Amino acid sequence: MTATANTTHATASTVGAVIRTGVAATAAASAATMAVAAVGHLAGISLELAGAPIPVTGFGVLTAVFSLIGVVIAALLARFARRPRRTFVRTTVVLTVLSLVPDVIADAGTATKALLMLTHLVAAAIVIPAVARRLAV
């Protein structure tokens, strides 16, 4: 007696779980980055970049956009990669580090730059592990 695995079903449910978890993590990360920005602003850190104010909601919107791009990457990796979790974590860590570069060179004060970078790291710390747990090793 032999058993065969239904890999199509397993892949479909994995992709669905990745997307559901990714959307939930995106919502949590968006709320968290807005909270970090609001607390930073209340603490006296400027939310101006090149003289233009960044609204607190802007942190949430951009977090959502880029986190959802990460969820799409994860879904594609779940479907096509040999080691989706490892590939996703490596890719998103590199993308997170690259996302800090514009903050470092931004026309803003040191505290503002640090706050911007902190929001990137907060979002990554929420989304990457949550999504990675849903990917096959």
Automatic annotation (TrEMBL):
Q: Does the keyword Transmembrane helix apply?
A: yes
Query: Which InterPro entries does the UniProt entry name for this protein?
Result: DUF6069
Q: Which UniProt keywords apply?
A: Membrane, Transmembrane, Transmembrane helix
Task: Enumerate the transmembrane spans.
Answer: 23-47, 59-81, 88-108, 114-132
Q: Which domain of life is it from?
A: Bacteria
Recorded protein name is Cell envelope biogenesis protein OmpA
Source organism (scientific name) = Micromonospora vinacea
